[in-house]
Amino acid sequence: MESTEKNIAQRFLRATALEQSMDPPAAAGLEESLAAKPAAAGATVIPLPEPGLLPDVNVNFLELVELRSSIRQYSQEELSLEDLSYLLWCTQGVKMVLPNGDSRRNVPSAGGRHAFETYLYIQRVAGLAPGLYRFLAFDHALVLEAGKEEIEEAFLASFKAENMVKNSAVAFVWATIPGRMYRRFGNRAYRYLFLDAGHVCENLYLAGQTIHVGICAIGAFYDDKLNRVLGLDGEEEFAIYGATAGKM
Ligand SMILES: Cc1cc2nc3c(=O)[nH]c(=O)nc-3n(C[C@H](O)[C@H](O)[C@H](O)COP(=O)(O)O)c2cc1C
Fold first, then answer.
1. Which of 96, 97, 101, 210 has CA 20 to 30 A from 220's CA?
2. 20 — pLDDT class (breaks 50, 70, 90)
3. What's the mean per-residue pLDDT of the chain?
């Protein structure tokens, strides 16, 4: 490793050590970040099939874990809206809203902060026009952010594995709003964000497998390009992880 790179990594670890983050900056007058980013006024909101009404999926858990693998090739078959609802429920679904507006979800999150927004580049989901959507976790609904033609070129060019994204039925991008986590944990929040993202994607792998939807995690994206096409400033909100999905 280059010595400068090593220094940056070491500085990050030192700056985010628990000893350095004893005083949460909550009292420092930081604005409380909203628990979820609302849909823009007048945006098209599409309710998803109720998670409670989705068919039960019975699995052999050990087999599920042992057979999980990254799938990079997909059939042309569409996902159903129920499939998408199920994948979103398993990855970011809100099980309970707490009195202070926080949530309990189907994934763990440090301090229950759930500092993610889920963006979906949808190409093959029955009943949905291809385009960029965002999951409204508290409403279990989608909001349309842009039509496919508006963003296709820039979106695909944001990934090293451009073809894998191009051939997927849905590409997930998890963006983080670090303020939600920072307010509680200070600099250490920047570790928890990346740890939390891992849990989300692992649930996507496992959930996908139970309904014959192949998944491949994506860490190799061009940060600036992807943030730009998603309309994120790269600081207050930035893309942290992604995954492709498609019928096997
Ligand atoms: C953090 C992370 C980032 C990854 N990024 C990519 C990626 O950008 N492109 C890709 O094709 N696979 C990516 N993968 C998938 C790995 O290559 C894959 O998990 C690994 O080769 C092991 O194979 P398996 O998942 O089938 O067990 C990523 C996996 C993880 C956990």
1. 210
2. confident
3. 94
Q: What is the pTM of this model?
A: 0.95
Q: What is each CA distance from 109 to 13, 31, 113, 194, in whole angstroms?
A: 20, 21, 6, 10
Kindly state whether residue 143 falls inside one of the protein's structural domains: yes
Distance 164 CA to ligand 1 centre (A): 12
pLDDT (0 to 100) of residue 152: 98
The edge-to-edge listing of strands for the beta sheet with 45-47 is: 45-47, 141-147, 131-136, 116-122, 170-176, 238-247, 213-218
Q: Check: CB of residue 132 under 8 Å from CB of residue 151.
A: yes
Number of domains in the chain: 1
Q: With a 6 A CB cut-off, is 202 part of the ligand 1 pocket?
A: no
Regarding the beta carbon of 218 and ligand 1, being less than 6 Å apart is answered: yes
Note whether residue 71 is domain-resident: yes
DSSP 26-70: GGGTPPPPPSSPPPPTT--EEEPPPGGGSPP----HHHHHHH---
> Which residue lies with its CA nearest to atom 15 of ligand 1?
217
- The whole-angstrom separation of Cα 34 and Cα 32 is 6
- Give 90's DSSP letter: H
Q: Greatest CA span in the chain, whole angstroms?
A: 55
Measure the CA angle with vertex 214, ends 70 and 140; round to 5°. 120
Query: Is the model's pLDDT at 136 over the cut of 60?
Result: yes
Domain extent, residue 102, equals: 44-247
Count the alpha carbons within 13 Å of 68 in the hemisphere toward its beta carbon. 19
Going by the DSSP 8-state scheme, the letter that residue 221 receives in this structure is: B
